[in-house]
Design goal:
The protein is mainly alpha-helical. The chain is built from 28 helices and 16 strands.
Length: 712
């Protein structure tokens, strides 16, 4: 929601002619274009907004496309909802069956091809715009001013958008063509190392000449500000200095730095599919750069902040708040021109146009395509049961915000999610961070049109990246204090947070920071690539499969399994539909710590308090008021003997026994064997995506796929 539309007019249209062609065929702008674009800053903004709009609507790497396929799934916390065999995307998600399926995988994989083409289209647009800046008569003036100006801010945004696109290309494809000048064809592949170094250096040049969020009328979170650039430098440095799967078929001297010097690496495990898993030996140089810019971002973060207090007052109806992590995401659903205070950069979406939150990355709904309450939400973003039950401390207030066990019926009622592989109210525990029930103004006319923004970078990410950098550089005291900021805000008080106990349980400060990121960013697309860049993916897969095996064995042999934190998952739970409005005064639940209350615990579920009014405001039809809108749940975290007195009493009180963990056992191939199918620790994880087939065929042999992908 909220939503500044990227206004495009006049000069913006000229970039449509230079960006929509194949990226190898772009042309240089004319002198007339330069004069027109720089005749007024508003003309420059209009031109840049065209590139932003392409990034918002067509990038295929931050909402739908590869983000949908590979970022919110395929980690030790996140998974997909359907059967493994149901979708081609599950093959790359699960590392191509340990690389054995690489040679047979279709390199025309449509989402990869679309992302490739569209990212280079955006890059072509930014290249044209950057060239206009750098050839304008005023360029040296505002670049040497030593402080931000309207034009230096705009130039910085163009540089940042291009760097972001190359970051995404390297993340998904590895080594790619590196085109920087309009009309000059990229010759073959460039190592990701050289690409990272180039754009980090370029970002460092523009960073001092940009505004922090809130320092200027146009320095808002839907534009790329100095605050974002500082965070982006940190993010790119962690990837540049991190582990990656690299090709071995390009020659020993292919991987070079920006100065043309061959890079040396430290390898993990063996070679397979013409690839190795390694990290630069000079990786600490990137951590030192990251430290400088992440420290600067934390020290002066403009109007962005870590939300540590829940500013909401308890409602007249009795809804209790007191969870700042809830507020982070509630603010993303509050209305037009309102943003989460914790967002460093949000990609704007507008109500009534296609958007993925919450359809793919939020609480599911069985509603139909239109006039539903709420409309259909597929629920691509799901979690392993071990994450929900085993990773979160029972006192961690992030769990119920992050994950949910209930969905919406689409008719104003709450329904239990089943572990049966499928979608909507089936498919297992789901992302709960976005829910149309919670929107200030839900859009009921059509599915997938909510207008909830995409939070591309949050301030807690900046803080935890800095904590990771400090720990890697041996500054443990500073690392612990940054970790404390995020960890303690997740608990009602510091005693419950028990930071020292958390670090001890994790085994080290570094592991605690990694675990904190896992808990903080569930369903936001960071965990999979955190594991890759830290070299922990193989180890995490082995640990996950052990945890899943132990859980399934317990469910099969005893009917339940208890995790180290005391949470128990059982084969059965008991549910009952109730009238929460009459009992509590509201339907949409908030924070609840009373685990004896089956309606309010776990928290952050229920239904919109007044779908009838929403339907009227949306001029939609077909809504009929339902009395029993909420679910009371028993046995979700503790074992109830299905043949015992407690179960009999629940049934006598109107509860129904519902299959829960039993469905996992009945479908254990999907929840165990098909999770990272056949992956063997010690081999390089093939997490990359084939490059665009048309680009390869037209490159005259200068661009080839690696990692075992067959050339077709």
């Amino acid at each position: 929601m909220k939503k500044i539309l990227y206004t495009m007019f006049g000069a913006g249209m000229l970039f449509l002619t230079t960006s929509c062609n194949d990226f190898l065929e772009t042309t240089s702008p004319s002198d007339a274009d330069v004069n027109f674009v720089f005749s007024d800053p508003s003309s420059t903004r209009a031109a840049l907004n065209n590139a932003y709009e392409l990034w918002r609507s067509k990038a295929f790497v931050h909402a739908n496309g590869l983000f949908y396929d590979l970022c919110v799934v395929g980690s030790d916390s996140e998974r997909h909802p359907e059967k493994y065999s149901a979708q081609t995307r599950h093959i790359p998600e699960n590392l191509y069956s340990n690389g054995d399926a690489v040679s047979s995988f279709d390199i025309s994989f449509s989402d990869g091809s679309t992302a490739w083409t569209n990212l280079y289209s955006i890059i072509a647009t930014t290249n044209t715009l950057i060239n206009l800046f750098e050839t304008s008569s005023s360029f040296n003036t505002y670049m040497s001013a030593g402080k931000p100006s309207e034009l230096s801010q705009l130039y910085g945004e163009a540089v940042a958008l291009r760097a972001t696109c190359y970051f995404e290309l390297c993340r998904f494809f590895g080594d790619v063509p590196h085109q920087l000048v309009p009309g000059v064809q990229a010759e073959g592949l460039t190592s990701r190392d050289e690409i990272y170094e180039y754009h980090i250096k370029k970002l460092m040049q523009v960073e001092p000449l940009m505004y922090h969020v809130g320092e200027n009328a146009n320095a808002i979170v839907t534009y790329m500000t100095r605050t974002y650039v500082q965070g982006l430098i940190g993010r790119m440095c962690l990837y540049a200095g991190g582990y990656a799967t690299r090709r071995t078929d390009l020659g020993a001297d292919f991987y070079k730095n920006i100065d043309g010097k061959t890079i040396s690496f430290t390898k993990i495990g063996s070679e397979k599919n013409g690839a190795v898993y390694n990290r630069r030996t000079d990786y600490l140089d990137f951590y030192k750069i990251a430290k400088t810019y992440l420290e600067a971002c934390v020290a002066n973060h403009g109007s962005v902040k870590l939300i540590t207090k829940d500013s909401r007052s308890n409602s007249k109806a009795g809804q209790v708040f007191g969870n700042p992590f809830q507020l982070v995401f509630q603010e993303t659903m509050n209305g037009d021109a309102l943003y989460s205070e914790e967002s460093v950069y949000e990609i704007p979406e507008t109500r009534g146009q296609s958007s993925e939150r919450p359809y793919a990355f939020g609480r599911p709904s069985d509603g139909g395509g239109s006039n539903a309450y709420p409309g259909k939400s597929y629920g691509q973003s799901r979690f392993h049961p071990t994450y929900y039950y085993g990773d979160f401390d029972p006192n961690d207030m992030r769990r119920d915000v992050t994950a949910t066990v209930t969905a919406s019926s689409g008719k104003g009622a709450e329904v239990m999610i089943s572990f049966l592989p499928s979608s909507k109210s089936q498919g297992g525990i789901s992302n709960n961070k976005w829910d149309e029930n919670r929107m200030t103004s839900p859009y009921t006319a059509k599915q997938r049109n909510s207008g909830i923004n995409n939070p591309y970078m949050r301030f807690s990410d900046v803080i935890l990246m800095l904590a990771e950098v400090y720990a890697e550089l041996g500054e443990d005291g500073k690392a612990k204090e940054e970790l404390r900021k995020v960890h303690e805000r997740a608990f009602a008080n510091a005693t419950l947070a028990n930071l020292d106990g958390f670090i001890t349980k994790c085994g080290s400060l570094k592991e605690a920071i990694a675990q904190e990121r896992k808990l903080e960013f569930g369903g936001e697309g960071l965990r999979r690539y955190d594991l890759i860049r830290t070299g922990k993916l193989p180890e995490a897969i082995t640990k996950l499969k052990t945890q899943l095996t132990n859980m399934v064995n317990g469910l099969e042999t005893k009917g339940y399994y208890t995790f180290e934190n005391g949470n128990t998952i059982s084969n059965y739970i008991w549910t009952k539909s109730v009238n929460a409005k009459s009992t509590y005064g509201f339907r949409l639940t908030t924070q609840c710590t009373d685990n004896n209350d089956p309606v309010l615990f776990p928290g952050w579920r229920g239904q919109n308090d007044d779908w009838a009014t929403v339907a009227s405001q949306n001029v939609t039809t077909g809504f009929t008021e339902i009395a029993n809108t909420n679910l009371a749940i028993k046995g979700l975290f503790s074992y109830i003997d299905p043949n015992g007195a407690e179960a009999a009493a629940l049934v006598a009180n109107g509860y129904k026994r519902v299959d829960w963990g039993k469905t996992i056992v009945d479908n254990k191939a999907e929840y165990l064997a098909n999770v990272f199918l056949n992956y063997t620790e010690g081999t390089p994880p093939i997490y990359l995506v084939p490059m665009n087939a048309n680009t390869i065929s037209s490159s005259n042999g200068k661009i080839t796929n690696g990692y075992g992908f067959a050339q077709k």
